[in-house]
Amino acid sequence: MKFSFKSKAEINQSLDIVVPNQEIEEQVLSKLKVAQKDSKLKGFRKGKAPMDVVTSIYGPEIRQDVLWDLASKTFSKLAQEKELKIVSRPNLVPEKIEEGKDAKFKATFEVFPEISLAKMSKISYVNYQCEISDEDLDNTVTNLQKRLSQWEPSESISKSGDQVKINFIGKIEGEEFEGGTADDFTVELGSKSMIEGFEDGLIGLKKGDKKTLELEFPSDYGKSELAGKPVKFETDVNEVLVAKLPDLNQEFFKSTGIEADDVESFKKEIRSKLEEDLVNILQGKIKQSLFDSLLEANNFEVPSAMIESEVSNMKQDTARRMGMDLKDLNEDLFPNDMFNEEATKRVKVGILLNKIIEDKELKPDADKVKEIIEERAKNYKDPQQVINYFYSDDQQLRNIESISLEEQVVEAIKLEAKSTDENITYEDCVSGTYG
Questions:
Q1: Which residues contact 428 (CB under 8 A, 6 or more apart)?
Q2: Shortest CA distance to 350 belongs to which of 412, 432, 294, 297?
Q3: Looking at residue 284, which CATH number applies to its domain?
Q4: 424 in the same domain as 334
Q5: Helix axis angle, 340-360 relative to 304-321, nearest 10°?
């Protein structure tokens, strides 16, 4: 056998495989005897056909099956002996196959990358900080009122926070494009649900107004054929709607899931929930900053098979969130280009975290696992029942242990990495547009 390793960091490897002729012939003969015993050939009783007749009929196919089977088994044996971490099925290419001689194959495959971690002292991340102001609290209450508000037609000009019903026709280089036209389409101004400039361009209009919006699709737009292209939307305003907010009373408080006697106690509960959510959001942003820095300090190749697998997982997750049946997934709806960059990042981060876990010999911390489970269970009617469920289901428990290990890795990196404090507004924090 012969390896063509260039370096341990090389993920694309090859292996020369030799299958001894004697082993081939023994296997072929054994399978021919079975074929002869089971044969039902015209002119012969079952199992009584001469071996030369059986060989002429079944021999070529049997020999081919034996060759590929022995080549695969030989590859598996050699890979195990060399302790190769294979991440893709080998591509076996026959280089020399002659009857009566040893067979030679070339196996090409991908291996799990062997990496050497950069010093953690080179890692620097942003320690995001944020506080909830009284204005943030008031805006949250107003948004809750909007969710339960009645939308009423208005003759006034549109402003941020209003809804407008429009007809629009989108054109690129003067030609309409698929999905660029709609009638009686409702847009909430300021919701940032449309491409940049669309909602701002509809501010200051009233019923019956017409306006052409000259915009540009983002470079990372989901449909690659539209990404980065200039576009014109010819719009007609059918109606301007303003929100009639419900009163801040006990009936409204109850409709939001909060029991409160007055506005002050209601706002106190809202602030408590916002602060609890804010902790998790900030932790997520800090962790992402840390992972980005970790990736920047450790550059290495990743096997395409691992990226393809992650892309497949991301597509399925996206389909589930959209309520789609997985059998309806297709390349046109979810092209790989939509997911490749993020999938590559996820795979790389996973490899780096596993390396840190291995180097630091980290194990799931029982107290941390318990803390995570209890945190998840507390919002259920019977928390203890949920806790028991997690501990009784091996798969769920392993998932929690993985989450615990990731948090342990993050804390381990923080101990050695450098951090820079940065204050951000609550709006930027929750919108996901910052950091």
A1: 434, 435
A2: 294
A3: 1.10.3120.10
A4: yes
A5: 110
One DSSP character per residue, 362-418 reads: ----HHHHHHHHHHHHTTSSSHHHHHHHHHH-HHHHHHHHHHHHHHHHHHHHHHHSE
256 shares a domain with 398: yes
**347 to each of 113, 149, 251, 286, 418, how far by Cα in Å?**
11, 44, 49, 19, 24
Which DSSP state fits 5?
-
316/323 Cα distance (integer angstroms): 10
> What digits encode the pLDDT tens for the residues 182-200?
999 999 998 888 999 999 9
2-3, strands of its sheet edge to edge: 2-3, 12-19, 103-110, 91-96
The pLDDT tens digits for 249-283 are 999 999 998 989 999 999 999 999 999 999 999 99
Domain identity same for 323 and 231: no
Q: What is the DSSP string of 267-316?
A: HHHHHHHHHHHHHHHHHHHHHHHHHHHHHHH------HHHHHHHHHHHHH
Measured in residues, the chain has a length of 435
Task: Using DSSP bridges, classify how beta strands 230-244 and 175-188 pair: parallel, antiparallel or unpaired.
Answer: unpaired
Q: Which residues contact 2 (CB under 8 A, 6 or more apart)?
A: 15, 16
Q: Evaluate whether residue 140 is within a structural domain.
A: no
Confidence check: pLDDT of 322 > 80: no
Domain ranges, residue 276: 252-431
**Final residue before a domain boundary, out of 192, 209, 244:** 244
**Quick one: pLDDT at residue 197?**
94
Distance between CA atoms of residues 242 and 412, nearest Å: 51
| pTM (predicted TM-score) | 0.71
DSSP-derived 3-state class of residue 266: helix
Q: Are residues 278 and 403 in the same domain?
A: yes
Domain endpoint, select from 210, 244, 278 = 244
Which H/E stretch holds residue 128?
strand 124-129
User: Within a domain: residue 145?
Assistant: no
Which strand (E) or helix (H) includes residue 215?
strand 210-216
| β partners of residue 143 | none
**DSSP H or E segment with residue 166:** strand 163-172
